Amino acid sequence: MIYLANTAHCQFLGLMVGFLAWILIMTTNGMNEWRLWYVTDKSVITSGVAWVGIWRVCFYSHTLPKFENCQWISISDTFVPAEISVAQVLMLLAVICGLAGNISAALAMRIVYFSVEDRRNIRLAFVLAGTLYVFTAVLCLVPLGWNMSSVLNNSTIDFPPEFYLPEAPASQQVGTAIGVGMLASIMMLICGLVFLCYQYVWQTLSSEAPRDTRDLLNGTWTETTLSQKSELPNGNQGIDNPGFQNEEVS
What we know:
Blueprint: H1 9-30, E1 35-38, E2 49-52, E3 56-60, E4 68-72, H2 82-114, H3 122-152, E5 171-174, H4 176-196, E6 214-215, E7 219-220
Antiparallel strand pairs: 1-2, 1-5, 2-3, 3-4, 6-7
Helix pairs in contact: 1-2, 1-4, 2-3, 3-4
């Protein structure tokens, strides 16, 4: 199959979408707006809302020395609920797995677009890229769904006193980070399915059509040789033209 690159346009688009989804996953990992906590006591949290992420908690205050106050959350903290601890681990794994998926997809595209003869690893490259994309989506969906469920159930967190946050908020709301993460997970899942459904990787490579040896301008290439003396018509044995013979000098 000479024009194999013409069959992988969707996969090339999937690589671009997968790279964008990976950036969104890193963005989700660093955002604080996983949960929005609304409080009634605005003596310290003057904005009335705190942003609870998986790595830190932030709020605005006019009474504290800093206008924006943030406290870091560690996986070793005893007050951290299970869904936040799991999110810290799985989101980091999702970033690493997504990077590996993009590298595998780029190698698969390189084989398709630039490799003419050696295509023995094309099946491995596409299957590996699709599997890593799907696995990355699953790694993101688990913590995102778990934290969303905790918000909808208005779950409480027993923060230490230095966080200046009550144990239970007046109300909670799903933050922007969960929405961005859900979008990135869906994009990753679609990219994985696109790579896994590439038809060429499920065909036998030995069944490829032989290389076309036709000259596109003059038709099929043929071997042309000079005719031998015995093949000349009318028994002509190649007699010299008398006009070109030199006159005998006496």
